[in-house]
Amino acid sequence: MDRAPGHLSRAIVTETPATRIKLITLGNPGAGKSALVKQFCEGAFSSEYVATIGIDYGVKTLSLTAPVATAASSPTLVKVNFWDMAGDPVYQDVRNEFYRDTDGAIVVFDVCSKISFQAVDRWIAELRSYGDERVRLVLVGNKCESERRLISAEAASAKAEALGCRYQEASAMTGKGVHDIFMPMIQTITYVRQKTTTKPK
Fold first, then answer.
1. In sequence order, what are the beta bridge partners of 57?
2. Any keyword Nucleotide-binding (predicted)?
3. CA distance 94 to 2
4. Mean pLDDT for the stretch of residues 183-187
5. 92 is in which domain, residue-wise?
6. Count of the separate structural domains present in the chain
7. Cα-based torsion angle of the residue sequence 82, 87, 93, 96 in order, rounded to the nearest 10 degrees
8. Rounded to two decimals, what is the model's pTM?
């Protein structure tokens, strides 16, 4: 992912009120968090690894159709705010300032790294220490295209089940599974938000 300011897709200027969602990515350095966000936002991949410094930010605007939008309404406009957290321990104090008001968290590990996988519990603990316990969570095994894989899908699925969340395999390089990381979470958060705001008094 390029590190020039504003490298993630920016919001589309519109007069239509939009639902705003805050998603964060967590995981060890090199797990591919930024690459997954770039692939989802831009449909692009860069093989050059440049570590995130502190926090990276971007916005992607989506137009969601039914079942999120009601039959009597136009498609729902959603602005997804991505907060890409640096994985280096030196940035922990910086990360801790950004957990508040998070709607969804994507915890990423590298399927080729046992250390990355073993760190998942630590990332979940950090999230729950500084964020809302009701934050929606998905565990992602990145780099599933690699022949050097060390973490099986079965082991990762068991970890996700223990955490009470969904597991998704993905490849930021090929794009496989990337859509399925983000869209179910975005759709669910939007649907719940709509039900809450339209609930009869």
1. 83
2. yes
3. 21
4. 95
5. 19-193
6. 1
7. 40
8. 0.82
